[in-house]
Amino acid sequence: MEGILKDVTQSLRLLRRSPGFAIPAVAALALGIGANVAIFSVVNAVLLKPVAAPHPENVVVFLATNRGGTGAIASDIKFNLWRQQTSVFEEVSGYHTGMLNVTGIDEPQPAAGAFVTVDYFRLFGLSTEQGRTFTAEEERPHGAKVVIVSHSFWRKMLGGDPRIVGKVISLDNESYQVIGILPAGIRLAEGDPPDLWFPFPIDPNSNNQVHYFRALGRIKAGVSLDQANAQMRLTTQEFRRRYPNALSTSREDVFSVQPLRDFLAQDVRSSLLLLAGAVGLVWLIACANVANLLLIRAAGRRREIATRIAVGAPRWRIVRQLLTESVLLSAAGAAGGLALGAGGIRALLAANPVDLPRLGVKGANVAMDWRVLAFTVLTALATGILFGLIPALEASRADLSGVLKEGGGRTGGSSRQNRARSLLAVGEMSLAIVLSIGAALFIRTLVALRSVNPGFDPHQAVAARVTLDPQLARLPGVDDIAADVFRRLQRLPAVESAALTQLLPLEGGFNSLTIVILGRPLTGLAHGNARWMTVSPEYFDVLKIPLLRGRAFTEGDRRGAPAVAVINQAMARQFWPTGDPLNDRLVIGRGLGQNFDEPPRQVVGIVGDVHEDALGMQPLPAVFVPLAQRPNTRAYTMWAVLRTHGQSPALDEEIRGELRRATGVPVPPLRSMREVLVQSTAEQKFQMLLMSIFGGLAVFLAAVGIYGLMAYSVEQRTLEIGIRMALGAQSGDVRNMVVLQGIRLALIGVALGLAAAFGLTRFVRSFLFGVNRLDPLAFLAVPVILSGVAIVAVWLPARRASRVDPIHALRREC
pTM of the predicted model, to two decimals? Predict the structure, then answer.
């Protein structure tokens, strides 16, 4: 221990005497480690932290897999069957969320609500600060109207009334008794806690097959995930026996469970791991830069090290001393990296337009916990050993007689050291090529996405979300609201046209329902599935969705009139590869039970395809139903879509005011459809931005590495260059010699980087759109640009070499 302390003391003294070496080395390491800390902190919060629940490793989500993929949306009949599997599950809970309005006050306010079964609170270990949670009786259909409020809602909306438990509040113009208050600071597995909690009534005898909520559970202690999934396969068979007439999709379903943490992160896991890999390459380049600095420093200390070995110091002692210096450098870099990482996390979250799961409000769950600190410590140790071992070993192998005979003359170090420095520079260039090609592919992807026709015209179009009063959420309430909305908005001179719709394009969430074509032979329960949504007659005109054949909806398509539907082009192609859709009638949602009773509908028109989910996904079959003819199901949320002659804050406030007066509920700020379109590519833009930053850092560090190597080479070859010029070499010859040496290393790095990118780009294939992973433009442009950067990096040392004064060089080396 005493020897190690001496090494540390001596290393600190030496580093303090060499600020020109220590400061650049620590800065490069802080940059590499800080970027890794920032990315790892997000990876830790999303992928590694257990969910906030007792025995989090046993909390699972219920899934159903069929030809359409795997989904986590449950129906009543499935949930009731899953709930009966008590041999493998302790708790099974259903839940869904929605927006409500706090009424009974001067200005109604929106609030987020969660509808949960009684098992939910036990599943996540939640208890009330005051009052109680729900009882089984309150969960039953037509149970008592009770509510549990969050701590923040209690403080802000209820004034922190200490006697609020037992009192009645008005929500959506209905009376609810407050039975409990949740404590402050609770964390949920899937996101921010809602304001209000309600019992979720699921009838045990329900035949409802509509999928509209999620089911979670906890596997019993001693039961493995494989055993639970084996039981779920048996449950699948039981489901098919009990419900032989279930929907075709349900008959094909295979039930399973998946750990909740893995399920929440599955959509972003690949993206985060890709970014972690990219920032890891930046760290390697930073390490290579510092290793080169250490090799250069070791070459300057060859006489000192040789002298120590000559007087009896063992080689392992020299290696330990040099490794101590490198570990101290990495420790200083780690300290700076933690500071940069903390700032990088905030910048990352501020710039991130994508809703990453489990981050919490403003990234509250992203913190420097023990995992981040352990990662930083391990990274610092690995960095110190990685970039310090080669220089230490090289320095300890000094040829004693040769070094001691050199006297005061300069030396460029051993040929082995020169090869090591060259290899490090080549490695930096190779890694920079890989990262830069990745950035180029993401840039090309974003350009391709931005060139996709979304199927609608976003210019001068805005949308406002309207949360409806439940008393008006069923027909004919929506008809009355729609009529009042149109009447009020048409009075505004700046509003050209307006429409109502369930969902916005590019927002996803469209319902997929069964489709039966009347008169066509049927082998199963349906001919297929299509997306379903209700719109007012003006919808296609407001968004300028082209009508390809037939007609759009009119005011005559109201309740009591013949039932009609409009389909998109994708549905016409899939369901009518031959024949005319306008000659047929279809039934939507057959078999969903009494909650969705649809009459046969005549297809009256075909409209162009709209990208409902994302610009990078092909439009799916979709069927539109007139708002006035929709099934008598609740529609708590609608979107008012308007085309205006211009936009301004005053107009937005005027529109929101008219919507507020028509619906009686508050209206959030308007959204421009242009913003919706831009937001649809936000994830790809964010990935492109990060990859470009990492690629830029890699290029900068690689250029610095090559410049440093060539500058040092020129410095150590001053005597040789002076002799060459004294014997008649021209300055241009010397300059070309140095340039060719640097360019040779750069081109070797480019070739190796291209080979590596050729293989590694297969890992980014799933993130690309409209561009091949071996895109010729990226694989040609990046090497050319980086070769140009390398030429600039070697030109400066070459220019200095060409100006060496032979007399001065010979005198210096004497």
Answer: 0.80
